[in-house]
Amino acid sequence: MPKLQKKVLFCLAGTLSFACALAIAAALGIQLWVRGTVLCKTGALLVNATGDELQKFIGEIQYGLFYGQRVKQCGLGGRPTTFSFFPDLLNVIPASMHVSVVIFTTALIVFALVGTSFFMFNAFGKPYETLHGPVGLYLWCFISCSCGCLVLILFSSEVKMHKLSEKIANYKEGGFLFKTQTEHFENSFWIVLVCTLVHFSNVFLIRLAGFDFPFSKSKELDTSSGAIDLMY
């Protein structure tokens, strides 16, 4: 493949990686990871609310990785309150899992920036070592994909399996019990998913530039070395 086309492909992959780093950095700091509604079950049972009356006991909740907001509805109007995960909710939520999500999200930003620099170095520089060349590009893309997958899996498990929204809604609520009605992932979660797919697609851009996958290349080297051994 001509050098110009390789430069264009590497520049495209580097630009995509840099855009992913910026997008994930923005997603990390906002509270648009999960949005849902919670039912004040205690209040609804006290007045035996049904139908339209039940809407007076359904509040809202939304949160990110660091802070969020909830609106309690117990029949007397909404009561908006804000909360933060650190350090308020560490005794309520699965803290190790939540901290892991934050760490892997930060790592995803770092490795996306590292991948960007190496893509640009391969486009305009002269790679002279293994990790500076195509093998290194495959490595950074693989690490970025792995971090993105871990973020998605851990956060989904935290929300769905550990019922994170309910634990947040019932935080410091001695007399009322809240039950999650609906919950869905918001923009920040889908940004991480899209960026993970972008890093995966960068692997095929490297292959399109004319560089074989590392494993297939190693197999070719093994067969050639075996033939040389047989000759001698």
Quick summary:
This protein is an alpha+beta fold and 232 residues long. It is built from seven helices and five strands.
Furnish the topology, listing elements before pairings.
Blueprint: H1 3-29, E1 34-40, H2 41-47, E2 58-63, E3 67-73, E4 78-84, H3 95-124, H4 134-160, H5 164-169, E5 178-185, H6 187-208, H7 214-231
Antiparallel strand pairs: 1-2, 1-5, 2-3, 3-4
Helix pairs in contact: 1-3, 1-6, 3-4, 4-6
CATH topology: Butyryl-CoA Dehydrogenase, subunit A, domain 3
Percent in strands: 15-25%
> What separation lies between the terminal Cα atoms?
36 Å
Total separate domains: 1
Secondary-structure element series = HEHEEEHHHEHH
What would you call the shape? elongated
Kindly name the structural category: alpha+beta
Query: Could you give the order of strands across the largest sheet?
Result: 4-3-2-1-5
- Biggest pleated-sheet summary: 5 strands, antiparallel
What's the alpha carbon Rg, rounded to whole Å? 25 Å
Number of strands: 5
How many helices does DSSP assign? 7
Residue share in helix: 55-70%
CATH class: Mainly Alpha
Q: How confident is the prediction overall: mean pLDDT? A: 84
The CATH architecture designation is Up-down Bundle
| Weakly predicted, low-confidence segments | 217-232
